[in-house]
Amino acid sequence: MLPYKSLTEPFHPETYLRKWEAVEKKASEKGFTWGSLYENYEDNQYMSDSLLLVPRGMAREIENASRAVNDIYTKTFEQIGKNPSVLHDLGLPIMLWDLFLKKAKTRFSYFTRYDFIASAEGLKVIEANTDTPVGIVEAAIGQEVLCQEHQLPNPNSQLGNRVRDAWYQVIKDYYIRSTDTLYFTCADWHTEDKQTVQYLMSCYPQKAKYIPLEEIVVEKDSVKTPDGETITYLYRLYPMEFFLEERSGTGEPIGEQFLVHIMEEKLQVINPPQALLMQSKAILALITEKKTEWFTRIEQNAIEKYFLPTYSTPNRLSSYVKKPVLGREGGGIQIVVNGQILEEDVDHYQNQQTVYQQYFSMPDQTIDTWDGPYTGKLLIGSHVLAGEPSGLFFRVGGLITGNLSMFVPYTEV
């Protein structure tokens, strides 16, 4: 468990809530507007104003682990290109295979978040969010506001510059001219996604426009805005597989035509389609299976150090986490320890292919909340932008890290 610094000592409910609301207002004014989330017919605290005190050595080790894990994912992506038959094992929609197999001209992802568990046994990566990662607004804006409140240094102070550097890499790799417009889109009703898109767009150094996903017009020859402007470059905070289900205002399916435009390079999307390929949790099983075949001895050492054995069946494991390969926000997860179900979600992703990852216990972490001190499980998110570790994002929640797990800022000591 990490030590933490409280804004309200000793804890008193009214004092705590008054101070929390003042901090939440400051964060909201800067663009982090979901300090609380309305779910299950009530307001839930999402932002904690406790500040985790993270040893500098631990922060550097997370950075090293993030770089090593990203290198393994990059090598795996290259190997899939040489061995396309493995696509059959990744649980991905068949209609997207042609996009995945198309020779990549870019990185598989420019905006990625790897999730780590830290313990006395070291760091272990449990999944990669390579397609549509969020948490970057919390790591940028939430961190800045809360570290100022605690009058302590913000280790993520350069995150905005790192986002900008990633955009320069995108501009270079996609050959985006200064006269070209990069459109940014997401589901307009989704506050978290919209504010994340607005933040990323604020860091983009060239011409940019926001277009709600609902307003994108897919025609037979191109993708356009409602005003008839052709969209050539599109940043989408929207899962690639969801586009297959999209329909026009008249109810006609448009997802296939949208994908055809990407295939024919009339439309360039960021993150690229290959980001979804690498988001499949079956990639973790592939890394386990191909460890000695695809990777050098040094890379094998990194896999043994940072990755957990993951398989397509649970036969080799007495304790494991069962994961849908394209599940999100903890949906469909089942935790089994010594043959007993410890926790599970049965409401989502029940029809997906699954993998079985060796169970690795998350450490306890206590923080302050509206209801007093709360002890939950700590998960570390590490943002990797254009291949560079760029900032951390801590959450504390239940055995399954879902969308109500609380964001907790940190400083280094």
Automatic annotation (TrEMBL):
Keywords: ATP-binding, Ligase, Magnesium, Metal-binding, Nucleotide-binding
Domain Glutathionylspermidine synthase pre-ATP-grasp-like: 24-410
GO molecular function, one term: ligase activity
Gene3D superfamilies (UniProt xref): 3.30.1490.330
Pfam annotation, one family: GSP_synth
Protein name: Glutathionylspermidine synthase
Species, as recorded: Anaerobacillus alkaliphilus
Upper classification of the organism: Bacteria, Bacillati, Bacillota, Bacilli, Bacillales
